[in-house]
Specification:
5 helices; three-stranded mixed sheet; alpha+beta; 5 strands; two-stranded antiparallel ribbon
Length: about 140
C-alpha cells in the first residue's frame, strides 16, 4: 500500500501553524483537534514540526514559562518527510528508525497530508487480517 492510498481514505487535511505561534496556543490547538503534532509552515514551506512530546519535554525541563515562547523554540526543524508514492512499509521504517510518530507528506514541494503511527498500525492490522483470510482459504481449499 502506498502513502497516497492512506491519504485517499483519511484525507489530506493538516493542522499547521506559523513559527511565531505561542506554545500555549499550539497546546490548545493540539487538544482541540485531538492530534499529536502540528506542522509549522513558513511561507507555505515546512519549517518544522511540533509534537505534544516536545511540549511535555519543555515543561519538564523549563517549567510553565516555556508556554509563553514561540513554537519555533521547541519544534523539530529537521523534518523527515515522505512522498505519496512511498510505501507504508517505508514510512513504518522511517518512524521506527527515527523514533517519531508523525511524517508529513510532501508532493513537489507542497504539503499533501500527514501520516501518523495510528495510520500505519491500522494498515498493518488490515494487512495481517488479509493474510489470515488468505491462509484460511488456502487451508480450506477454496
Amino acid at each position: 500500500m502506498l502513502v497516497s492510498d492512506i491519504l485517499k481514505s483519511k484525507g489530506s487535511a493538516v493542522v499547521t501553524a506559523p513559527p511565531s505561534m505561542p506554545v500555549a496556543d499550539a497546546a490548545r490547538l493540539l487538544a482541540e483537534k485531538r492530534i499529536g503534532s502540528i506542522l509549522i509552515l513558513e511561507r507555505n514551506k515546512v519549517a518544522g514540526i511540533l509534537s505534544e512530546r516536545d511540549i511535555v519535554r519543555a515543561l519538564a525541563n523549563e517549567g510553565a514559562g516555556c508556554l509563553d515562547g514561540p513554537v519555533s523554540r521547541l519544534m523539530t526543524a529537521k523534518v523527515v518527510t515522505c512522498t505519496p508514492a512511498q510505501t507504508i512499509a517505508d514510512v513504518m521504517q522511517m518512524m521506527t528508525t527515527g523514533r517519531f510518530r508523525h511524517v508529513p507528506v510532501v508532493d513537489n514541494g507542497k504539503v499533501a497530508g500527514m501520516i501518523s503511527i495510528g495510520d500505519v498500525v491500522k494498515w498493518r492490522l488490515e494487512e495481517a487480517q488479509e493474510e489470515v483470510r488468505q491462509m484460511a482459504a488456502y487451508v480450506a481449499g477454496t
